[in-house]
C-alpha cells in the first residue's frame, strides 16, 4: 500500500482525553476514531491489527477442537430470565424493546443463548463433548468507559462454550482452553500469566484470568519469578492427551500468581522465596470459567446417558478480549517514539521510506523494492509522500512496523539501503539486491 493513497489521519500531539499510552498512540497513529463514550470506529491501520489478532485467536481455537459459529448481537430477555441473570446483571446490560414491545438486550456475553442452541441440537451422550465459539461484538454499559479500547462499552470478544457429560470430562475441556490460551498469547509475542480469579457475574466453580504485565495494568499482581523462565512458545501438544494437557496446566498453576483481589500474603510468603517474589501490574486479556450446570439446569440442556437416563450437561465459558488486546499489546510494547508491534500482529511487516520522493533514481529504486516485496507476499507500507525525511521517520516510528527500509540518494550511490529493526533500533546497510531476500523470510 502506498501511503499517499492510504487513509491514516496522523495527529501530531497527544489528545487531551487520552490518559494511557495505548489510547494516545492509537489516536495519534490514526488507528481508531471515537464515536461516543467507549465506542470507536476502527480505521484501516487499526482494523488490520484487529483482524490479525482475531485470526490468531481463531486458528488456536480451531486447533484445540473448538467449532466456530456466529450468534446475533441482540438476545431475547426470556432466556436470561430463565437463567436468573436478567435482573441480576445490573445496569451494564443494555436493555431495549422492539416494535412489538418484546424485551431484548444487546449481549454482554452468550451463556444463555449458546446453551439454548446446544440444547435444541443434541439428544445423546454421543453428541458430547463439544466446544462452540464465536467472535462477535459485545456491549456493556460501563459506568466510566476509559482508556480507549482497553475499557470500552462496545468491544470485540471471542467467547467459547464447552458442553460435557461429566465434571471430569468438563475439566479436560477447561484444561484444553487453558493451554490454548497460553499458545494464543505466545503467538502474539505475549507472556500472559494465568492467575486464579473471581467468577463474577458469570458464576461457577473454577476461573482463571490471563494477564500481561504492563505499568498501566488495572490490577496489581503478585507472582513467582519462575514464570519468566518458562518457554512460552513450546506448546506442541496433543489436545486429546488428557494427561499431557493436565500436566501443562499443573505446571503453570503450581507457582504462585494472583491479582490483588485473590492475593494471600501469608501463602505468598510461604510458597515464594524472597528472591523470587515479583510484583507489578497486569492487564486482563482472557478469562476462563467452569460453571457446571449453572445454565444447563435452568435451561434444560440435557442428553440421554448411556444408561438411558437424562443427564444435565456440564459447561464452561472462555473469553478473549480481541479488541482489548490491540491496546494491551501497545501498553506492553512501545517506547517514547511510538508503537512497537510484534511481527505476528503488525498491520504491515515493512515500512518502506523514500527519503526523496520525486527524485527519479530514488523513486525507481523504491518502486522496484516495493513491487518485489509485494511479489514475495510481504506486507509493505510505502511512504511515497512528498514530505521531509524527518517527518517520514517519525511517522514510521509512531506506527511501529517491525522493519523499516530507507532509500535515499546517498545510499543509492553506494548501492545500498538502510534496514532498521524497530524493536531493537539496530540498523544495517544492505545491498539493494539483497533487501527483499532479507525481509521475505
Largest sheet: 9 strands, mixed
Q: What is the strand content?
A: 25-35%
Overall shape: it is: globular
**How many strand segments?**
23
Mean pLDDT: 94
Distance between the termini: 20 Å
Low-confidence stretches: none
Pairing-aware structural class of the strands and helices? alpha+beta
Radius of gyration: 24 Å
Helix content: 25-40%
How many individual helices?
Answer: 12
Written overview of the protein:
The protein has 441 residues and is an alpha+beta fold. Helices cover 31% and strands 28% of the residues. The strands form six sheets. Strands 3, 7, 8, 9, 10, 11, 12, 13 and 16 form a nine-stranded mixed β-sheet that branches. Strands 20-19-21-22-23 form a five-stranded mixed β-sheet, sandwiched between helices. Helix 2 runs antiparallel to helix 5 and helix 5 (167-187) crosses helix 6 (242-253). The model has no long low-confidence stretch (mean pLDDT 94).
List the keywords:
single chain, about 450 residues, five-stranded mixed beta sheet, globular, nine-stranded mixed beta sheet, about 30% strand, alpha+beta, 12 helices
Amino acid at each position: 500500500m502506498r501511503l499517499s493513497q492510504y487513509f491514516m489521519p496522523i495527529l501530531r500531539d497527544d489528545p487531551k482525553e487520552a490518559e494511557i499510552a495505548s489510547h494516545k498512540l492509537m489516536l495519534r497513529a490514526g488507528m481508531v476514531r471515537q464515536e461516543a463514550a467507549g465506542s470507536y470506529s476502527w480505521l484501516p491501520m487499526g482494523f488490520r491489527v484487529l483482524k490479525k489478532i482475531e485470526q490468531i485467536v481463531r486458528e488456536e481455537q480451531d486447533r484445540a477442537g473448538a467449532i466456530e459459529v456466529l450468534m446475533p448481537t441482540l438476545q431475547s430477555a426470556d432466556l436470561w430470565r430463565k437463567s436468573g441473570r436478567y435482573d441480576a446483571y445490573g445496569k451494564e446490560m443494555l436493555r431495549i424493546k422492539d416494535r412489538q414491545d418484546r424485551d431484548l438486550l444487546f449481549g454482554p456475553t452468550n451463556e444463555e443463548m449458546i446453551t439454548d442452541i446446544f440444547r435444541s441440537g443434541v439428544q445423546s451422550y454421543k453428541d458430547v463433548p463439544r466446544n462452540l465459539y464465536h467472535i462477535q461484538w459485545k456491549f456493556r454499559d460501563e459506568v466510566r468507559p476509559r482508556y480507549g479500547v482497553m475499557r470500552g462499552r462496545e468491544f470485540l470478544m471471542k467467547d467459547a462454550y464447552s458442553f460435557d457429560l461429566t465434571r471430569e470430562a468438563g475439566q479436560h475441556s477447561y484444561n484444553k482452553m487453558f493451554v490454548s490460551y497460553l499458545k494464543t498469547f505466545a503467538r502474539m509475542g505475549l507472556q500472559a500469566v494465568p492467575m486464579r480469579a473471581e467468577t463474577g457475574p458469570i458464576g461457577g466453580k473454577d476461573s482463571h484470568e490471563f494477564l500481561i504485565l504492563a505499568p498501566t495494568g488495572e490490577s496489581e499482581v503478585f507472582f513467582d519469578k519462575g514464570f519468566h523462565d518458562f518457554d512460552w512458545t513450546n506448546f506442541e501438544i496433543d489436545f486429546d492427551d488428557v494427561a499431557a494437557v493436565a500436566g501443562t496446566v499443573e505446571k503453570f498453576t503450581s507457582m504462585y500468581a494472583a491479582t490483588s483481589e485473590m492475593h494471600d500474603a501469608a501463602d505468598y510468603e510461604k510458597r515464594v522465596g524472597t528472591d523470587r517474589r515479583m510484583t507489578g501490574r497486569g492487564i486482563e486479556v482472557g478469562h476462563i470459567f467452569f460453571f457446571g450446570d449453572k445454565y444447563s439446569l435452568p435451561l434444560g440442556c440435557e442428553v440421554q446417558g448411556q444408561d438411558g437416563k437424562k443427564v444435565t450437561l456440564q459447561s464452561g465459558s472462555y473469553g478473549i478480549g480481541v479488541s482489548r488486546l490491540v491496546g494491551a499489546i501497545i501498553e506492553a510494547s512501545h517506547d517514547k517514539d511510538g508503537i512497537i508491534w510484534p511481527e505476528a500482529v503488525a498491520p504491515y511487516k515493512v515500512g518502506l521510506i523514500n527519503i526523496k520522493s520525486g527524485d527519479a533514481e530514488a523513486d525507481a529504486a523504491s518502486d522496484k523494492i516495493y513491487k518485489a516485496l509485494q511479489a514475495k507476499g510481504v506486507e509493505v507500507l510505502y511512504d511515497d509522500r512528498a514530505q521531509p525525511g524527518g517527518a517520514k521517520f517519525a511517522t514510521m516510528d509512531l506506527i511501529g512496523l517491525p522493519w523499516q527500509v530507507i532509500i535515499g540518494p546517498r545510499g543509492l550511490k553506494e548501492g545500498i539501503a538502510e534496514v532498521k529493526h524497530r524493536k531493537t533500533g539496530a540498523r544495517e546497510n544492505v545491498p539493494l539486491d539483497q533487501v527483499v531476500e532479507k525481509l521475505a523470510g
